[in-house]
Specification:
There is one protein chain. A 9-stranded mixed beta sheet has the order 16-15-14-13-7-12-11-8-17. Strand 14 and strand 15 form a beta hairpin. It is an alpha/beta fold. Helix 4 runs parallel beside helix 5, helix 5 runs antiparallel to helix 10 and helix 8 packs across helix 10.
Length: about 375
């Protein structure tokens, strides 16, 4: 019988649901080195966390995260709270010797991210930031092809992450629209994902030049009819840049693209070929090979649903040709994390990756503020 890992999860809403599902499913579909036990879930609103506890099969619930971190029976702390609490919880968890999985962005700013990295290094605990899109089979295949040299020298990385959920000016002022809680808007929320994918697929950024915009400056205050509050984060961000290997970068993230609910498009061009990925068709990778005969050139579709180790992760799910979806990326993340915890091995993206992402995001904000190119430094 495999050993067990007792999980304590802090936060229970959108990401709490995604993570709860992943903790439940991981050992059903993957041969793991330990079985996760959903020991305790934590949230500030008693009724909400009690309902989540019952719905997802957690053994118990609490309303104070300190109780989870201080529980000597807990092996893993999973952090799904608003961004302003990530650092405090993670640092406490590290001091308590817990392995830590933390939602992105890692922190409010670079200073906090450094403190988190220092804490997990000092404690020697396994740590991971949840950039689930790294574990889309098509993205992992793209990484494999790039590392094998199939695209040759990389010239361009273009990425767009587009949503429209705050485009309505009457959308209320929630925590994601306040810098003291969220840190930033589209920049930290969704730009962090395509920055992370750029680092994963192409390499480290060398310099950036960005701009941001807040289209709706004030929004209705929840529960206070007729009153409005100031929006203190960006609604959209875009930047150009350069990677250390010389490749050029062009990234855009917006919450004001009407009709786009969770659109992610990536194109990578190299000296030997190109790759195109669209999250709305996430089981497909498009590949152009310059070495094809002149009369056969064009983008080919690679359906990333072959099992038997041919395509990453999918062999653990269904027979060939049966597609998987968004929720599966979290299961893949949790499965890799569990094995790393048992082996006490590093698993990417680590808190250091989260710090490097934060350095890029902060540089983009500084560039937008000063209207200057910013060189990326550690």
């Amino acid at each position: 019988m495999p050993k067990t890992l007792n999980i304590g999860m802090i936060g229970y809403k959108f990401m709490g649901r995604a993570h709860s599902h992943a903790w439940l499913k991981a050992d059903r579909f993957f041969d793991l080195k330990a079985r996760p036990v959903l020991k305790v879930i934590c949230g500030r609103q008693r009724a909400g966390v009690m309902n989540a506890c019952a719905r997802w099969g957690w053994s118990q619930f609490v309303t104070d995260w300190h109780e989870v971190v201080d529980d000597s029976t807990i092996d893993v702390i999973d952090i799904n709270t608003p961004n302003d609490t990530h650092a405090e919880i993670a640092i406490a968890a590290a001091k308590a010797g817990k392995a830590i999985l933390c939602e992105k962005p890692l922190a409010l700013d670079v200073k906090q991210a450094r403190q988190m990295v220092d804490a997990v290094k000092k404690a020697g605990v396994v740590n991971m930031v949840c950039h689930n899109y790294r574990r889309i089979p098509a993205i992992v295949l793209a990484k494999k092809m790039i590392e094998a040299g199939e695209l040759g020298r990389i010239y361009h990385y273009r990425a767009r992450y587009a949503q429209d959920w705050v485009a309505d000016p009457n959308f209320p002022l929630n925590w994601r629209l306040q810098d003291k809680i969220a840190g930033s808007g589209a920049n930290g929320d969704i730009n962090s994902h395509i920055v992370d994918l750029g680092r994963y697929l192409v390499g480290e950024f060398a310099e950036v030049c960005g701009q941001t915009e807040t289209f709706v400056k004030e929004r209705p205050l929840p529960g206070e009819p007729g009153r409005k509050g100031k929006v203190t984060v960006d609604d959209a961000v875009m930047f150009i840049g350069r990677f250390q290997n010389g490749a050029l970068a062009n990234l855009e993230a917006t919450r004001f693209a009407l009709g786009r609910k969770n659109g992610i498009q990536i194109e990578i061009n190299g000296s030997k070929g190109s790759l195109v990925f669209d999250f709305e068709d996430m089981n497909r990778l498009k590949y152009y090979n310059e070495a094809d005969p002149a009369d056969r050139r064009g983008f080919r579709d690679i359906l990333v649903t072959q099992g038997g180790g041919v395509h990453p992760y999918v062999g653990n799910w269904w027979p060939p040709g049966h597609i998987i979806g968004y929720e599966h990326t979290f299961v893949h993340t949790i499965a890799d994390f569990i094995n790393a915890v048992v082996d006490r091995q590093s698993v990417q993206p680590t808190f250091e990756d989260g710090l490097m992402n934060q350095i890029v995001l902060d540089a983009v904000e500084k560039s937008a503020r000063t209207r200057r190119w910013i060189v990326i430094g550690k």
